[in-house]
């Protein structure tokens, strides 16, 4: 199960009634935050989460509405007596950014582990999740994140017994190990069932619609995507500033056959994003006009 | 008249129901902000002010609960199409801090004028206000601000006429100029009345109580001061971290004979600062347990 909380849904500037777009992902006891604009630590607090628990922060790009909350976040971690290192992961420019952060957030008593990438596609594994950063198209270099929770095949004890496989090897076989014992060789295939569907979550903002988004979001359980404007006449503005329209995100969700689409990163010029609900649901019915604090538990679907 | 708005009253970390301590001062069309922690731009917005209007930001010290809102503030100014320069004024360390800010807030399209001081007492004039930064005692170098709006003496037209002073000189005399015209010398004293009381506002956080505060706050119209804790048993903690207790601030207000004291910079551990109202008002009756958005218009008292 992946717990997802979209802490804020705003773009550009934080508003009194709308935090900036940021997403907390919790899986098997670990917490990963994607983006952290000004006020994200307050939104976390409001939703009942503690800064202390966060293991890693993934950044999409270095516009401050996605990053300016980092100094306060790190200091609040420090005040909560955190001593474990924090991972900060982001595209090229991370070290320069963190250099700036440390001139504002002085006295960080724990280690910052930095993972800076610049490939168009960059994969890593963290807290049991397989994560791929993929380059999108914004006014500055920007990446989306595909997050996968793989699921191990079921261990079939009946088959193991039928093949006289010693019980002491079961655990290692379940974990995918091949075991040689005297003349005998036992492989995971001998005891494991068919592959089971995992979970996939894709987060993408800020960007124009580009084919790579649907490729990564293919059959995802949840796509969280920018819907900067609902007004069709703002398309030119969206193109100019490299942002995505609500209906463009809905088209991607449809094309990628995702289960659900959450829109976010609304322009401050759009006080009531829900007024476009009907229009975007005509394109992709399972579209949610997210609100701050939108939550779900993504559950594995197969027994 | 000086318009004062205490945008937030929190210390250390911003809370969902309490912005960080920051004060907006408006005088004769200019706006000066003292301190800007994470979320200050949201508090400004909430109170109906625009970031665009701010002419100067004064910083007391470089703890992030007083500074981490600067990147977002500058970017919101940028988004409001501001082109005029912004003054940022603070103690030694300002250039290093701004160097960090500019690694987070990229693309600032207006000039930043920096005024960095390190004297224990540093005076400057800005937007018609005489401002003195005075060093207090915190865990890092920290300054308070004394802000004075001087008031010109009344121009006494009857006296000017009685002395046959040509009307063409009246305006220059009113502004304090001495004028020689042929054999005649006209001085401001010939036409100006007695000195009139100006307005004084003092802002001081974070600090232990030190004599310099009452000296600068002497007879002030408003003293805005830290009241980190109300609980008497937290005195040792306040001493250790160099913060000021509510009742210590009240004692300073009494000693300095200020008209009104606003407490602020409450510890996040103190959810209901108003519960100490009666106790601090026993020391200094005109104590206000400030709330976010506390406002007043300080008006000149003499005709």
Task: Describe the structure in your own words.
Two copies of one chain form a homodimer. The first copy, chain A, is α/β, with parallel strands linked by helices and 303 residues long. Chain A has one domain (2-153, 194-298): Ribonuclease Z/Hydroxyacylglutathione hydrolase-like (Metallo-beta-lactamase, Chain A), CATH 3.60.15.10. Helix content of chain A is 23%, strand content 29%. The first copy, chain A, has helices spanning 40-46, 70-79, 94-104, 157-162, 170-174, 211-217, 235-240, 246-256, 277-283, and strands spanning 2-8, 22-27, 30-34, 54-58, 86-91, 112-117, 121-126, 129-135, 143-151, 179-181, 184-186, 196-204, 222-226, 261-264, 287-289, 294-298. A seven-stranded mixed sheet of chain A has the order 6-5-4-3-2-1-16. A seven-stranded mixed sheet of chain A has the order 7-8-9-12-13-14-15, covered by helices on one side. A two-stranded antiparallel sheet of chain A has the order 10-11. In chain A, strand 8 and strand 9 form a beta hairpin. In chain A, helix 6 crosses helix 8 and helix 8 runs parallel beside helix 9 (277-283). Chain A is globular.
